[in-house]
Amino acid sequence: MWNKNKPIGLILSLILLLVMVLSCTPTKSQEESPTIITITGTQTNTTLVPEQENQPSTTQTPSTTPTSPSTTSPYISPVILLSPIHGAVDVPVNTTFKWSGVNNAANYEFVIAEELGRTDKFSLIDYIASASTNSHRPTITLKSNTQYWWRVRAVNSTGTKSTWTASSFTTVGNSVIPSTTPPTLPPTEVITIGEATVVQVIDGDTIEVSISGMIYRVRYIGIDTPETSEPFYLEATTKNAELVSGKTVRLEKDVSETDKYGRLLRYVYIGDLFVNAELVRSGYAKAVTYEPDTKFQSFFESLEQEAKLAFRGMWAKKYVGSKASNKYHFPNCSWALKINPENEIWFYSAADAQSHGYEPCGVCKPPIVD
Description:
Elements: H1 6-24, E1 37-40, E2 45-48, E3 81-86, E4 95-99, E5 107-115, E6 122-131, E7 135-136, E8 146-155, E9 165-172, E10 175-178, E11 195-203, E12 206-211, E13 214-220, E14 223-224, H2 233-244, E15 248-252, E16 264-270, E17 273-274, H3 275-281, E18 286-287, H4 297-309, E19 319-322, E20 327-329, E21 344-347, H5 350-355, E22 359-360
Parallel strand pairs: 13-16, 20-22
Antiparallel strand pairs: 1-2, 3-4, 4-7, 5-6, 5-8, 8-9, 9-10, 11-12, 11-15, 12-13, 14-18, 15-16, 16-17, 19-20, 19-21
C-alpha cells in the first residue's frame, strides 16, 4: 500500500546526508599552513617544505655546493692557481706566481717549497703571511731540475681562511714543467708556532727542524755567532749542538716570518731554557739588532755585557783584532779600544791570530809565540 509520507522522509534523509558531507569538506580558510623546518649549516641555509596537494614531490636537502660569501656565513671561496710565469728560472726577478682574486679577500697566504728527494720531505723556499695582491714574486732563486710545490689561500677581514689550493711543477733548465698529478704535501699548517724537532745544527745561530714532515731552516732572532771563516766558529757551533741537537724545541715568532734567505726567524726554547739568550750569556754569541724583530734586544745586550765582564766564551780570548786591519792587540791597547764592536775579532792565542792572517801590533807588542 502506498504511503504518501515515504517520499518526504526520503527527501529529508538526502538533505541531511548532503549537509553532513559539506560540513566535512574544509574551506580554504580552514586549511592548515605547511610547517616550515629550517636547517642551518656552516655554508648554506636550506628550507624544507612538506609536500602539498597539486605540488610536485620535491623534498629539498642541504646543498653541498658552497654559496657565495655573505656577512652571515664564515665561508670564503678558495683561489684558483694560475701558471707561474717564468723567464730564466735562475733569475728570481723574472719569476712570478699568480692566482685568481677572491672578492671578499683582505689578503692571501702564499707558500712555495722545494721537494727534498722524497715526497714527504720539503724545504721552505718562501712564505708570505699576508700578500696584498693576487701575485707574488719571490726573492729566492729557484734551482734547475728541481721539484717544487706552491699553495695559496685567501683570508678575509675577520681572519677566516679558505682551504688551501695547491699545485706543483718541475724546473728543467730554464723551463717549467707543470705536474699532471696533485702535489703530495702535508695536510697541516705550513708554519707552526709550537713544537719542532731539531734535525741538524748548521752553525751557532742556525738550525734545521722538522715540523709535520717538512724541513725548515730556522735562524735565531737577535743574536749572531761567528761565520765559518771566523775565530770561535767551531766553539759556537758545538755549543749550539749541545743545547738543541735532536731535541724538541718550541719556536716563537716576533714580527717577521722569514728573512731574505727564506729562513724562519724564531726565538727558540727547550722547556724553560731560552736558547737565544743562553748563547749570548755564555759568550758564544753577540747581541745584534735586526729591525723589526727587537722584542728581547735590550735583554740580549745586557747578557752580552755580563759575558764580557765575566770573560766567558769568545770574550775569554787573549787578543783582539779588527776586520778592518791585520793587527792583533792586547785588549787594553789604545788601538784595541778604538775598534768598532761590530768589527771585533777575538783570538785564543798568538798562533790563532796568525793563522787568520794577523800580525802583532807595534804599539802594545803582543807576543809572536805564547
